[in-house]
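Structure ticket #2291
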Amino acid sequence: SWPEEQQRRAEEIRRKRVQDEIDVGAFPEIDSPDVSVIIPCYNQGDLVEAAVLSVFEQTHGSWEIVIVNDGSTDDDTNRILASIDMPRVRVVTQENRGLPGARNTAIRSSRGRFIVPLDADDELLPTYLETMIAAFGANDDVGFVHCWAELFGDVNWIWATRPYNPYTVLLSNSVLQTAMIRRGAVEGVGGYDETLTTGNEDWDMW
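Resolution: structure written out below.
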């Protein structure tokens, strides 16, 4: 269909734009990046490229990406992840441990002051990192900052998450999983609870 072809062409242009920047050395390796974007991937090879490209498109330039292949059983996914050869991107492969286990592996393999859990089927808007880092300000007591979400694909709407309130967080999960977390905070609570493999691991974190 024409909408599918239109999307294919847009993705091709996007891919070429990022590759052109890579070719001229726009993304040198960084020993101590500000942000580590961690991407668990289980049989989502057809989607993970868009997530990765959305990090390369950020207006804030100090970042790295750690992708964890969480025991994917899909041949195409394994092929795609094994073929990734991009600066600042590392792929770690492990047996399937579920989402919280994959995130913990990525966190241990990362170096950034801040952690951003990005699901393989999600993307960041270009000013995400810049805006979130600014929200921390100079307040070392802030453990994480969160935002709204724009859904796309099968449904299109805005999820306006509630302002942070420790009482309401006890009642319901009102924080988007793609928050920015201070490394000391996530390590201080022992990372994600790896027993919560069917959901709510992010709610437990908050």
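Closing remark: The CA atoms of residues 1 and 7 lie 10 Å apart.
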